[in-house]
Design goal:
single chain; 194 residues; alpha+beta; 55% helix; 14% strand; rod-shaped
């Protein structure tokens, strides 16, 4: 691109429109003309910067809520996976204890309570399955005992299952409990009595 020599102030204003900034500054003959050009370029950049700040604020207002929903969603999903794994581990340990000869309902319930309390889960439902029939832990409330001694009386090779469930809203960390409603996280482990 050939260099254009600027002789008058009118030409300097026209050069700002036609030439790139670096060429406009190099083609001026006198220092005064260069100062005028530099000042006008700085003013146009300043105006552009203030307009850009407004655009950044609008972009942030649009993107920030979406980003926060995404981050909190990831945290809540991770928490749900963690609680699900805790339930599976607890049910497996309790079922393993239940199938050993001499195990009692009280021992199995103690394992469940200790595992879930150490994980910070206070509200849960626990059931025992014997050959597919589901019983709550307090199935024999009429006898005055908390436990029905179902595991004690189970025969050899009986399928014993431990069924644990917890409401997602009881274990949610963030505001997702509002969305979770009555959804449950649960785990069932079946083993045969030894």
């Amino acid at each position: 691109m050939p260099k254009k020599i600027i002789h008058r102030m009118g030409d300097a204003e026209a050069a700002l429109m036609v030439l790139p900034v670096s060429n406009a500054l190099l083609t001026c003959k006198s220092a005064g003309q260069r100062a005028v050009l530099r000042r006008r370029v700085q003013e146009s950049h300043k105006k552009c910067r203030t307009q850009r700040v407004g655009a950044v604020a609008v972009e942030m207002a649009i993107v920030l809520p979406l980003l926060l929903v995404l981050v909190f969603g990831i945290i809540e999903f991770g928490r749900a996976m963690m609680v699900q794994q805790i339930l599976v581990n607890t049910a497996r340990e309790a079922a393993r204890r239940a199938v050993v000869p001499g195990a009692t309902d009280e021992q199995v319930h103690g394992i469940i309570a200790s595992y879930l309390e150490s994980a910070g889960i206070g509200e849960y439902e626990a059931h025992i399955e014997l050959d597919g029939v589901r019983h709550p832990f307090n199935a024999n409330g009429s006898s005055g005992s908390e436990f029905a001694n179902l595991i004690n009386s189970a025969q050899h090779r009986t399928k014993i299952g431990i069924d644990l469930s917890v409401l997602h809203s009881d274990v949610a960390w963030g505001p997702m409990y509002l969305i979770a409603g009555d959804r449950k996280l649960s785990a069932i482990v079946l083993m045969r009595k030894e």
